[in-house]
UniProtKB/TrEMBL annotation:
Similarity field: Belongs to the amino acid-polyamine-organocation (APC) superfamily. Spore germination protein (SGP) (TC 2.A.3.9) family.
NCBIfam families, A to Z: 2A0309
Subcellular location: Membrane
Keyword line: Germination, Membrane, Transmembrane, Transmembrane helix, Transport
Matches recorded under InterPro entries: Spore_GerAB (IPR004761)
Membrane topology: Multi-pass membrane protein
Pfam families: Spore_permease (PF03845)
Record's protein name: Endospore germination permease
Transmembrane segments: 39-61, 81-101, 121-138, 150-169, 216-236, 270-294, 306-326, 338-356
Top-level taxon of origin: Bacteria
Length: 362
């Protein structure tokens, strides 16, 4: 059942925190370290500084244009047909992000835990679970995100506590890795690593009050950034600069480092359970909001029947890349580079048009 505006602050916060914060445990760190080496842990901060002002501006515009979601806001400001073109581009970005990210996670699951299983089988099973979860509706997704958030974050906290003994702080030097100019360039190019914040704006009217949505997304964004920076810093201190860019999944590697005394070794399976839970929730949220964006563009109010065909399309297109290297280091890298200027500039264009139209004086 489609959401009727019944979510609370804690549920909005939980969903945002899951969809943003899980980047600490995927291959984003490996992607960012290719050029910057051991200075890569600063890149998310630069990316966040580039894109967050635009996100705040979008929240401001949504507050000014009451009773609007992301698609309605864009169409209201720049006109119906021009707005639909921009929103269609937004949908394409959301769909491609969903597709490339999901292939990345499926590759992680396969390589780490089911090495003998075919990729397509793992992919289908993964998205059957995602589809069944998304089919429950946005309210159930929000409630599930909130009740599981504590366990997901507790598992990450345990990893942090147990790995501190293996950290070598000297490995963080030189602070800027290959150079400050490279960090700044990579930070701007990969600003869209936080593009999910913009996609979530389609659900602006889903909370009991829009102020809850604004507070929840802002607070969760800042917390999620802190978590990403903390774990990226840990990866730098655990792995030396020569190996950091060669490690595809550093979070899973450090879970194999840790143990609880002599009798509790190989506890990475414990952490895998909560990582899988977070991964499923991320894509349940993501496939739902992507279908929602498409539904709003083409005035399909009951868009939930689209969840099944979209889930099938994601798997079909996600299987096209030959391997995870092409998917991550070529396709995802290119997508982030293309999306970044779009999300950095779009909010300011919308604000400028709204300002000259006189709509902001209301």
């Amino acid at each position: 059942m489609q959401n009727k505006g019944l979510l609370r602050l804690k549920e909005i916060l939980a969903m945002t925190l899951i969809i943003v914060g899980i980047k600490l445990s995927d291959s984003t760190s490996s992607l960012m370290s290719q050029q910057a080496q051991n200075g890569f842990w600063i890149i998310p901060l630069i990316s966040f500084v580039c894109i967050f002002p635009g996100f705040l501006l979008m929240l401001y515009l949504l507050k000014k244009y009451k009773d609007k979601n992301l698609v309605e806001l864009i169409e209201t400001i720049i006109g119906k047909w021009a707005g639909k073109i921009i929103c269609l581009l937004l949908f394409i970005f959301a769909f491609l992000t969903l597709t490339l990210d999901s292939r990345n996670y499926v590759e992680q699951i396969k390589q780490l835990y089911f090495q003998e299983s075919p990729t397509d089988i793992v992919y289908y099973i993964f998205f059957i679970v995602v589809f069944l979860g998304a089919k429950k509706g946005f309210e159930v997704i929000g409630f599930t995100s909130w009740i599981t958030l504590f366990f997901i974050k507790a598992a990450a906290l345990i990893v942090f506590i147990l790995i501190t003994g293996d950290m070598v702080l000297q490995r963080v030097f030189p602070i800027f890795g290959q150079g400050l100019s490279i960090l700044l360039t990579e930070g701007v190019k990969k600003a869209s690593v936080f593009a999910e914040l913009f996609f979530l704006l389609i659900a602006y009217q889903s909370a009991k009050s829009t102020s809850m949505f604004r507070k929840g997304t802002i607070i969760a964004s800042i917390i999620g950034l802190f978590e990403i920076l903390l774990f990226f810093f840990i990866y730098v201190c655990v792995f030396d600069y020569n190996s950091i860019k060669k490690i595809a999944f550093p979070y899973h590697d450090i879970t194999q480092f840790v143990n609880l005394g002599q009798f509790f070794t190989n506890i990475e399976t414990f952490f895998m359970v909560f990582w899988l839970l977070a991964a499923f929730l991320k894509f349940i949220i993501f496939v739902y909001i992507t279908s929602w964006i498409f539904g709003e563009i083409f005035a399909i109010r009951n868009f939930e029947p689209l969840l099944l065909p979209f889930s099938f399309l994601v798997v079909m297109i996600g299987l096209i890349p030959l391997n995870s290297v092409i998917n991550e280091l070529v396709l995802r890298e290119t997508l982030l580079t293309v999306m970044s200027p779009f999300f950095i500039v779009l909010p300011f264009i919308l604000w400028s048009i709204a300002f000259f139209k006189g709509d902001l004086k209301q």
